[in-house]
Write a structure and sequence with these properties.
Length: 216
């Protein structure tokens, strides 16, 4: 962003677990800019936020990240300071500054702030994207099984975070059940672990169903 134009604001909007924070890191890496985590409530509070941010980024090219920016939406002091920074009143005289905020409650943000921003919406992943995610976590399953679990995951509204959780849950419970079964046969844990199979399809589907029930 040019100093005369004020800072740029990018809002990533979507449900938790849809990859918003991961994309913030990707943006900063792709731009070759350092990533700074903003905390408007530090020190003097939101009323001095713009001045503190100006000092922090003066002469620097950087990405400033507001995690869950909507949590400050009820604080008019923060909204006012953010407007000043975006409009260039407190903008540094040099350097490219990109402000990025994540939110799953876009409607809570002041309309004029949203109007100043470019909004990117993150939707729940579709079945073919979920199939790719599941393949990275459960490559031992057959293609038909991966397609089934991806379809069930899409129907349940799972996100990438949910897939990682279910994969970890299935692996953990499979190991526990295997160790309990093998220990009764006299195997030590080390030997038992070496023969532990990957989770079966049903174990993954069990967690998918649990996540779906929890979200309802």
């Amino acid at each position: 962003a040019r100093a005369t134009d004020g800072a740029q604001l990018l809002l990533l909007s979507g449900a938790p677990g849809t990859g918003k924070t991961r994309h913030v890191v990707s943006f900063s890496r792709a731009l070759g800019l350092p990533l700074l985590l903003a905390n408007p409530t530090d020190q003097s509070g939101p009323s001095g936020f713009a001045a503190r941010l100006r000092r922090e980024v003066a002469g620097r090219d950087c990405v400033v990240f507001f995690d869950e920016i909507d949590r400050y939406s009820d604080d008019e002091a923060f909204a006012s300071e953010l407007r000043q920074f975006l409009d260039g009143v407190c903008q540094p005289s040099s350097g490219r500054v990109l402000l990025v905020g994540t939110t799953n409650k876009l409607k809570r943000l002041p309309r004029d702030v949203v109007h100043r921003a470019e909004v990117i919406s993150f939707e729940h992943p579709e079945a073919h994207h979920l199939a790719e995610m599941w393949h990275s976590h459960a490559a031992h399953l057959q293609e038909a099984d991966l397609a089934q679990i991806a379809r069930k995951s899409a129907q349940a509204g799972l996100t990438g975070r949910d897939v990682r959780h279910c994969a970890s849950w299935a692996e953990r419970h499979t190991v526990i059940e295997h160790l309990n079964r093998e220990s009764r046969l006299g195997y030590c844990h080390g030997a038992a672990l070496s023969t532990c199979p990957g989770p079966v399809l049903g174990k993954y589907l069990q967690c998918v169903a649990q996540r779906h029930a929890f979200s309802e």
